[in-house]
Amino acid sequence: MALKIDTFSNQVGGFSFFKAVGHPLTAEAIDALLGRLAAAGPVALYDPMGHLGTLAELHDLSTLTISDVFVQAVERIGEDILGHTARPVTELAATTAGTVLIAGFDAGRAADHVRHLLPAGVELLTLDAVRLPDALLTNPRKYLDPLNFATNHAFLRDQDGRHTRLVTANYWTGYGAKGLRLWMRLFDTDGGVLATWEQSLDDGVSGIVLDSAEIRQRFGLDAFAGTLFIHAIGARGHDVVKYAVDTYGDDGDELSCTHDANAWPADLYAGLPAAKDGERVTLWLQNAHPTPVPAGAIGLNRMGSDVVRPFDTAIPGFGCRALDPAILFPDERWPAQFELQAGKHVVRPRYEVQAGNRRNRIAHVNVERVDLKADPKIAEASRHLGKGWILPAPILPLARYRSHALPTPMSTAQVRLPVQAVIYDADGAEAARHRFGVLARCDSVAVEAGEILNGASLPSGYGHMELIYDFEAGADDAADGWLHGLFRYEDRETGHAADTSFGAHVFNGLLTFRGEPQSYGGPPPGLSTRLFLRLGHDLDAVDTLCHLIYPASTPWHAASSTELALTGANGSEIAHTPLAIPCGGSRLWRASEMFEKRDLDRARGGGYVLIRDTTCRLFGYHGLIRDGVAFSLDHMFGF
């Protein structure tokens, strides 16, 4: 059963109310308030802001003896709300309740408007009684300001010699933030509180490292796996906590990475691969809310099938569970893929793939859009936008790695997909092309770069591939502008692998079409780059990888003017290196190749590389490598 709550809109962004009543501290206060109301006798509920439904979805109101439900909007009079017929608030004087609760924050005016209607002796309360303390707010004057709830969830584990490392930077400083702090609470798999603490950040764009091993030692914890709730206080510019995640092991064989959880739980997620023979896929489901997820509320279906098989597993509030898709679909194998019916219960889930005893890798599924429709104007616009929507991904050195691509439907509108994969060498010359034709939603077709090249080589040994629409194949009315793919990389010698996934955008052109080329810092077109490259040399015998791609829907500047700024943990620049990437090409490099060891040593403990270009938009992938043993790879984030 899906939660009936609003979490995110692609038109207006995230909604704050569900975060406000689902914050761990607020959840405790609401539980106490509901206990007091339950003991006090009948209560009337007033819903002038339309938030009562969300409150009831995330907190158990069944303990209350509800006498009446009142509304302000005339069009809502007569609605069935919590089993009661909604009455106009003008009838409040007739209530027999001893308490009236206004289901809203910043509700002082709403309370003043109805106070004179209350029968004598009736207590009037609002949700302002359970507000977070002002010390935890960025904007105390507007409680539901999204910046007051710049929060996210992270998967954190420290057990059996396996550790988790979150790395980010205080990018809010670049938008004018001062005195920023992180409030954090660590939950175990059952939602029990393991630790709560705050961490102050430097005012510069300083590095931030949260390592499970250090946290475990600091708080004297036993082995754990669970959720780290992160709340940024004093945020500016972004109401999301972005981060990169590395998993690593004591024996050196495990090295993997993914990134932030996406702060808004969604109805659907997609891009979950079935296991290959000899592998096991584990899906980690993290409950984003204080209310438990009932058994059977979350399920899987094979992509393109309407047959949903539910997980018979409940998840406690703020808890998490590790589930095996093969229990529901024992006969499915890669490249089959699943759609997750999540019902807004969980943040973007992680999945892990275990091959052998220690060859573990972590990745994530993606939010599946439910608000899109197939749009024939996309094909028409492509006459002006050249290649149009491009999904770029690395081709790692062919002699060592196999690079796979699997198109993944990522919107409910995608029934047919006209798609092709184009391979380019490092300097941007086309080397090969594979036409998938028109894929049906139920098709799961993976290709491998070496097989597309059919024995041909790339001059630099590596390059990149682009998934783009193929309207020559037909179905020019089927595109929805949300082309996605899963990319898998396998080391031929060690068997180690990495998964990453992302979606397409229009890159590097002056013409715009419905928000493309996307710009994070203003209106389109987005024609500049600011990417965060976390460094891994704090780990033993580990170097940092980066594959920067210069995709261009139409011809743009002949080469990029990219600057790599090695930045210390305190946000100060240590060294910088220029890098020129040909238009349509890419560059694969290591931190140890771009910077002196002495400078990299100065960046230990939270240093990073800021990748900046004011002339074009680059797309980047980062990873870590322990030569001859293990590697990781995932796409980068910017700020």
Commentary on this structure:
This protein is mainly beta. Helices cover 11% and strands 38% of the residues. The chain has ten helices and 45 strands. The strands form eleven sheets. A five-stranded parallel beta sheet has the order 7-4-3-8-9. A five-stranded antiparallel beta sheet has the order 21-20-23-18-26, with no helix packed on it. A hairpin with a 5-residue loop joins strand 16 and strand 17 (255-259). The longest helix has 17 residues, at 24-40. It starts with 7 loop residues before the first strand and ends with a strand. The mean pLDDT is 96.
Please give the largest β-sheet: 5 strands, parallel
Number of strands: 45
Share in helix: 10-25%
Q: What class would the helix/strand composition place it in? A: mainly beta
Shape: globular
Major sheet: arrangement of strands:
7-4-3-8-9
Radius of gyration: 26 Å
The N- and C-terminal alpha carbons lie at a distance of 36 Å
**How much strand content do the residues show?**
35-45%
Model regions low in confidence, pLDDT < 50 over at least 5 residues:
none
Number of helices: 10
Average pLDDT figure = 96
